[in-house]
Amino acid sequence: MAENTPKNINISSEALQAxxxxxxDKASDLSNMTAxxxxxxxxxxxxxxxxxxxxxxxxxxxxxxxxxxxxxxxSFESQDTRDAYCRSINFAEEYAATLEKSILEFTPAEADxxxxxxxxxxxxxxxxxxxxxxxxxxxxxxxxxxxxxxxxGTRARPKKKGVRPEAFPTTEEVEYxxxxxxxxxxxxxxxxxxxRGLRVGAFQGLSxxxxxxxxxxxxxECKGTFSTEIIEKMKALNLSLNAPFADIDTVSLKSxxxxxxxxxxxxxxxxxxxxxxxxxxxxxxxxxxxxxxxYRVSKLLNHAxxxxxxxxxxxxxxxx
Length: 320
Fold this sequence. Notes:
The chain is mostly helical. The protein is 57% helix and 5% strand. It is built from 13 helices and three strands. It has a three-stranded antiparallel sheet with strand order 1-2-3, with no helix packed on it. β1 (207-209) and β2 form a beta hairpin.
């Protein structure tokens, strides 16, 4: 009897749990197995898992990771979008390094642990990074048979939080904030966001001809008109209308606006530490309130569809 007993079985609790789950999924009656039958079946399972892991390592070794990552990032037209996705993937790479493996070797459990390891960061940031890394895995999955997306179906992703009460500043707050910005170019930029709705990322590539402007926003060409007041303010600062904000770095611009607005909030002068994008929210809300013409507002915001604008306005509690 002893000669038939499987030998040299290294049983980890994780492997044993996975094996029992697999047998349960197959509707196997574990209670009727003898210890010898259970160990024999487990040994076959463990051997198959080792072989699968080995085969997977062989396949992954043929993936030129850096080249695939660059190809994925270059699929986005906007440099800001590429930078955002790159930062998200870097978080996953840093966590994988602590496990002494590539992110391509993530198991679903390790992918969940990666998400849990980010708990000190804001839920919105973690959700954004998980979405970016998951998108990268889906890209790789379509190109390489040995790769699957370990984040698909994860329940570790933080839950969405409700919309914060102060979704955008009031008219009085906008006027106060703008009037107290000492940097004249920063003053003009915030004024344009609040009164024409441009995204922060649209300023670097902005060009103006007459009252018409053209730029790139979220990877798409964006055209429109500026008010005479905005044009006059540009001229008063002696800005070149061909490229008035070419020296502006988007990330630095966001930080500057955040810094200045937070100072006013901490001083008790405004109700919330509004972000640069909250001034765009203000623009969307004030334009919609003029005539409730969602089609017109959608065009002004350069949205892809009215459905996007409707979701946008709902997110800031302008419509129900």
